[in-house]
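Figure S7 source data.
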Amino acid sequence: MKEQLEAIQEEALEKVSLVDSPKELQEIRVTYLGKKGSLTKVLKGMGKLSKEERPVIGQIANQVRDTITGALDEKAEKLERAALEQKLEEESIDVTLPGRPVRVGGPHLLTDIVEEIEDLFIGMGYEVKEGPEVETDYFNFEALNLPKNHPARDMQDTFYITNELLLRTHTSPVQARTMQEYKGEKPVKMICPGKVYRRDTDDATHSHQFTQIEGLYVDKNVRMSDLKGTLDKFAKKMFGEEREIRLRPSFFPFTEPSVEMDISCKVCHGEGCSVCKGTGWIEILGGGMVHPKVLEMAGYDPTVYSGFAFGMGPERIAMLKYGVNDIRGFYTNDVRFLKQYHKA
Ligand code: DAH
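Tokens for the predicted 3,4-dihydroxyphenylalanine complex:
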């Protein structure tokens, strides 16, 4: 029996040394150590042995089992390690390969322009305010000296929601809102960027939704010359120090007097060319001295306070600054168009 056991051990160890797959290894394990395995079979025959022989053979049998198990385990580990090494080798990364470029987004051209204008006015001491896009008739019109049935309401074709609610046609209502907030007690120096809506048919220069930036400065002794100085600074910072401005008389119900501001044409410097349609000037924005009635309705005493206001369209400013000739470019969001204007 001893010889039989030794033969089994020798055979098993030889087989273990020859296999090279975990599957075959498992087969060997079953063949020798399994329930019907050859070692098990031998052990079952131990009952026939004499009392003296039994412990001796039993010990040998245990040793044989341990040796085979040890060999199987060792081989299994070896195979596992080899498999891992092979996998690592196959999956090795070539770190010298160039990477795939990651496409990075950026702010929209309009966002950039609005922020540029905000920064400019913040630098002159203005705060940035916001107001609702769904606005009351009162703030959009009445508080700005446009009572019901006032003919100047026709200047702004309006999307009405109800008789009293509408989509704001301009950012000017934020003037009235801010003055009311400050209760006629302290100076106001604010700008308000935001979306506005008009019943217009979209084309190269019209959009039913666009952006405006409102400006308002109310204090004691604010004069027309302050408005002119502020707008001149703005124009030069925005378009270049060599640009001139001019103010033309105009009409807005919420300002008196009212003006429109032009800047000198950058192509012909005021001589007249096709860009400025022969005038030498390009219209930029509207403004004026806040109408006493507007001050009064918002709680500011017009005999103590005065102010100026202005409103501009960032799309128009971006179009002039960057030579964009179709306002729809801002809204159709063609990345090929937009990425031309990404700041580095
Ligand atoms: N709200 C005017 C518009 O949408 C623009 C404007 C003109 C605003 C004169 C002002 C202003 O504050 O004083 O056409």
